[in-house]
Write a structure and sequence with these properties.
The protein is an all-alpha fold. The chain is built from 19 helices and four strands.
Length: about 500
């Protein structure tokens, strides 16, 4: 049924809110995974830190490889992004929960290789279904609207709710160290709670998009030649990577996620060993500070982006985070004021300044490449444009966790306990403690500096995009245009 004979609904504020709640489906699971899964494998299952990092990295890299393939699929005529999301939600919740069981103990596995392979397969399952949900979830905005500021507003609302999702994804797993109703809470218990909530809100997001006009979903579906489709995927991937500003966007995204995943997966170790705080108290203060700061930064980043542009806003806040991490390294994570470990608040605040701006602006910045790609290559590929940055994002995130695991091993950290009453055993070696502090502050600061350099050379400013959009509209109308004034973009 075509657009003229089918009734479509406007994307109202109520529907935008319903869509925004879909961020919980990816963010709850994403944050629990990146903050705790390395800890789970090392401290509970008993996998060495370096091997744990490799397990996570392999699963994420495999998923990164499939990102452009999934993106190209959801860009095809007749493919409804809502249906792709809907079909991924329940399997995502199930596989996520299963990944947090101690299968070494349940199955009595003694082979280290068998344990590693099992968790690689499980985590690969998480990321495949995660991608099947998130790519159409984010890409659909670029299909609904091409308005520069409306895209920012939609992503900002979603990012504001993301602050709550970050809180739940980080605070609830901290209950693992507590006892509820005379039962020791496990990571599996927490994963089930978060998975159920993620599934419910994912279906709510799909429902909010019902009867919204999506051009590609209304086009007739042609017969698929899978070989040709795969070749087209790689051609499209190459087209996007060749876009003039994209190499700087890659630097920005890859190194930001590289840094942030190192910090996020180090929170547990930083609290216990660098700050010298009890884990259960420290993690609550860290996450509370992280969430409150993100909630403050999100509207500030959006407002500054509307006054200037998204690139300038991201550059400002991420530069502040970079400088802040260097300052924390100089001061030391064990700093006290009146006996209070101030870095339990200082560290997450600095991190959240960068995170709040990144997640508010990242996807709307990626949407700019939909128009650049259309101008240069003559095609609109919303999902593939979303998938390629996700490919870079996951490589960066995976590299962060892999590097953290390798560095923990290099500094000499060895797990010596594996019970839920005392997950972390004492460490007296100052070399290990100093190494953990470097992993949390110095190394991420260097990575953020590279990310900032990428932003400095990225020229997708509001002014440049306005010129490109104007020329693109003329082309669509059949008018002849020139490339004058677009040298920074094409």
């Amino acid at each position: 049924m075509d657009k003229q004979t089918k009734t479509f609904q406007p994307f109202t504020k109520k529907r935008k809110l319903g869509y925004a709640f879909g961020i919980f489906t990816e963010s709850l699971l994403y944050n629990m995974f990146y903050t705790y899964f390395l800890t789970f494998l090392v401290q509970i299952v008993g996998v060495k830190p370096a091997i744990s990092g490799v397990v996570i990295f392999i699963s994420i890299v495999w998923d990164a490889i499939t990102d452009p393939i999934i993106g190209a699929f959801t860009d095809q005529a007749g493919v409804d992004k809502r249906r792709v999301m809907q079909h991924a939600i329940l399997p995502l919740g199930i596989v996520f929960a299963l990944s947090w069981l101690n299968w070494k103990s349940i199955l009595g596995l003694t082979s280290p290789v068998g344990i590693v392979v099992l968790y690689i397969v499980l985590t690969m399952g998480i990321w495949i279904f995660y991608t099947l949900y998130t790519i159409p979830y984010y890409a659909v905005v670029a299909e609904i609207t091409q308005d520069y500021d409306e895209r920012t507003s939609i992503r900002s609302l979603s990012s504001l709710l993301n602050a709550v999702a970050v809180a739940l994804g980080n605070v609830v797993p901290a209950l693992v160290t507590t006892v509820v109703f005379n039962h020791a809470v496990t990571y599996f218990d927490v994963s089930v709670v978060l998975a159920v909530l993620a599934v419910f809100l994912g279906f709510l997001a799909v429902a909010s998009l019902k009867s919204i006009y999506l051009e590609k979903a209304e086009l007739p579906r042609g017969k698929i030649n899978h070989g040709a489709a795969l070749r087209e995927t790689f051609r499209g991937f190459a087209d996007i990577v060749k876009l003039k500003p994209f190499k700087f966007f890659i630097l920005f995204v890859f190194f930001f996620l590289f840094a942030s995943s190192m910090i996020q997966s180090s929170f547990s170790y930083s609290i216990v060993y660098c700050m010298g705080m009890p884990y259960d108290t420290g993690i609550v203060l860290v996450v509370a500070s992280l969430v409150v700061t993100m909630a403050v930064i999100t509207p500030l980043a959006e407002r500054f982006a509307k006054q200037k542009d998204r690139r300038t806003s991201a550059l400002l806040f991420i530069s502040i985070a970079c400088a802040g991490l260097l300052a924390l390294r100089i001061i030391g994570l064990d700093a006290e004021i009146g006996g209070f470990k101030v870095m339990v608040i200082g560290l997450p605040v600095i991190c959240a300044i960068g995170l709040g701006a990144f997640w508010t602006l990242f996807y709307s910045m990626a949407y700019d490449f939909v128009e650049i790609d259309e101008y240069v290559n003559g095609e609109r590929r919303e999902s593939l444009i979303t998938a390629v940055p996700q490919f870079i994002q996951k490589l960066g995130s995976g590299a962060g966790i892999l590097t953290q695991g390798l560095l923990l091993s290099a500094y000499g950290y060895v797990r010596t306990t594996a019970d839920y009453d005392n997950i972390f055993s004492p460490i007296s070696d100052p070399k290990i403690v100093q190494g953990m502090e470097n992993i949390t502050t110095l190394f991420p600061a260097i990575l953020l500096l590279i990310s900032v350099c990428g932003l400095l050379f990225l020229k997708t400013s509001r002014k440049n995009m306005a010129v490109l959009t104007e020329r693109l509209e003329k082309r669509r109308a059949g008018e002849t245009t020139t490339n004058e004034g677009l040298e920074a973009l094409i």
